[in-house]
Amino acid sequence: EAQPAAETQTTAQAEGDVLTTVQLEPQRGSDATGEATFGLATEDQPYVDLALENLSTLPQDRTYVVWLLLSEDQGYPLSPLQVADDGSFSDRFPIPQFAIPIASRARFVDISLSENRSLLEDLRRAVNQERPILGYQGDSVLRGEIPTQEAAEGQGGQLPGGGGGGGGGRG
Asked: For the chain: N or C, fewer Cβ within 10 A?
């Protein structure tokens, strides 16, 4: 897909708008593979691109969810995933403004297999309490550790791997 905004980026982001790419490793005997790429669509709109393969088809009451994890058992569920019949998934998710500080501190990207009902209840409770960080739930299918970079630490508004281009930090 053409991204006209990417063509007008500053030279600090001339390599495209990618900040970091995280390889996702299969968990618990899964055959799935994938990667998550963090970047900036515009100067103040971060995103994560997911490219996944070999995911199993699911019963109706379960769904895959992409998480930005602060620890092994706590994080922000960014979105449920609609996986294709062939077990693949590829899409870009904008990271909401309120979730940018969470994304900047995230240690892992995780794809979980979750029960729809319990996830919906947790999401509703989090929205009502205005607390987007939830206890991790579901079974991890894919997980990757987000690389830490000294340049990103201490700049609260940065995304994982951010700060490397010399002009991206608006903390």
From this structure: N
Measured CA to CA, the distance from residue 158 to residue 89 in angstroms comes to: 26
**Residue range 83-122, pLDDT digits in tens:** 999 999 999 999 988 889 999 999 999 999 999 888 888 8
State both tokens at 127.
């929205």
Give the Cα separation of 65 and 79 in Å (integer). Answer: 6
Q: Which two tokens stand for residue 136?
A: 């991790």
